[in-house]
Amino acid sequence: MDTIRMENAYINKIKQINKNGKYAVLTMGCQLNENDSEKIAGILKESGYEKTEDLSKANVIVFNTCCVRENAEDRLFGKLGEVKKYKEQNGTIIAIGGCMMQEKHIVNKLKESYPFVDIVFGPHTMQDFPKDLYESIVENKKIEDILDIDGNIIEGMPIVRDDKIKASVAIMNGCNNFCTYCIVPYVRGRERSRNPQDIYNEVLSLSKQGYKEVTLLGQNVNSYMVSEKNNGKDVNFEVKKEDGKIVTVNSFATLLKLINTIDGIERIRFISPHPKDFTDDVIEAIAESNKVCKLIHLPLQSGSTRVLKDMNRKYSKEQYLSLVEKIRSKIPDVEFSTDIIVGFPGETEEDFEDTLDVVIKVKYEQIFMFIYSRRVGTVADKMENQIDEKIKHERFNRLKKLAEEEIEEGNKKYVGTIQKVLVEGKSKTNEEIYTGRTETNKVVNFEGNNEMIGEIIPLKITSQHVWYLKGEAIKL
Ligand code: SAH
Ligand code: SF4
Ligand code: F3S
């Protein structure tokens, strides 16, 4: 792993020529993409720009794109049509970054049909964005800054975080799994893990800023350090803690245990783990670490062993179910959430029913459901037995109905219990109502006050709905 420290030379150059400029960053992807957006915003803020929500007032608009499904791509093209007029009226600099820029056919389409775009950069060249921006401003030229090769680990990027209570921290990047439907390994490159000292320092600094919850991010968080280990590198990193103690970190499990010791951080989450890498040491680390939330996101994708094989997921229906059972037996009160794809090529009614069967058996707290989307360059895109759109939608609706019934039924177990809720703020729709989340990530709405924001408070759950619970503050 090559760790590179970002230099600020171009940020300082922009600062000198920037006069009260404003920026807008539009995030279109997953949590890693959001985390990247916070770093792009950090670069712009350090360069002297101020954030605006009003695109017509922005001097720089950055799109941070996603290409995991077709609808994510469509959103970019829709929005580009809208910002064209700002370019024409105000000379706004339009920059596009993110995963979609790693796809050659997309960049070609941009060049042909959207020539007003100024800067195109990828996830591997984010650290060079200040240089690209500077050259675009000063030389008024079009810039294409994309690296085909896998990126390095970049440390020291400035960051403007969207939230003051919960923060996300990328611990690794890239993916080596090549699930046959998925574009991510092609656009994010191979797995590479951050140095644990850098991760520790970042979380420690978050705790000092008052953050209560961290989510450790990676395409496969539990493959942390695995790729380095497989490449024969010595991964026994000695991390120096605030109190001077030295701890060895050489795996995801040891990293979790280290983060668990940071005072002030009260909740630790992580996404996404891969079931195939869910080793016993990780289960033990979660069981032992009081701050690690007992909600595990365990992507299923399909409940059919045959489809799982075609997806290259490396586990069967039975192995997935026994992993769930093993985790349940070692971690009391643990709950699960998942990702499911319907309509993968060749999925039969019987295969689909296997997926429904797993949903019934596991009783998930939350299910993220997706209709299979063909991605150029992936193995599944070339499979001949693609499923008819009508059948895909029909299956999706059946899954959604079942998921909602199961989740609402499962929510009944909370009614009458007392849950520790991290209060996030006021509800978006009702000024009187405050909202927060349980350890299992359930939204709870209740009558509260401003002093509760950012605190973990006990709430008595009074009723359940599909997407949230209602609660009331209790007197201790
Ligand atoms: N690395 C993570 C998440 C990757 S993308 C993991 O392996 O779990 C997030 C989710 O998008 C995936 O879990 C999958 O359910 C979904 N997804 C990925 N590619 C897709 C495609 N081509 N069509 C539909 N859904 C897809
Ligand atoms: Fe995509 Fe599979 Fe990698 Fe997740 S593990 S990012 S689904 S290839
Ligand atoms: Fe999308 Fe890239 Fe994330 S493709 S899901 S933004 S890693």
Could you give a short description of this structure?
The protein has 476 residues and is an alpha/beta fold.
Give the helix/strand layout.
Blueprint: E1 3-5, H1 9-17, E2 22-27, H2 31-46, E3 50-51, E4 60-65, H3 70-90, E5 93-98, H4 104-113, E6 119-121, H5 129-139, E7 143-145, E8 153-155, E9 166-170, E10 172-173, H6 184-188, E11 192-193, H7 196-208, E12 213-217, H8 226-230, E13 237-240, E14 246-249, H9 252-259, E15 267-271, H10 280-288, E16 295-297, H11 305-311, H12 317-330, E17 335-342, H13 349-362, E18 366-371, H14 389-411, E19 418-426, E20 433-437, E21 443-447, E22 456-464, E23 469-473
Helix pairs in contact: 1-5, 9-10, 13-14
The structure holds S-adenosyl-L-homocysteine, iron/sulfur cluster and FE3-S4 cluster.
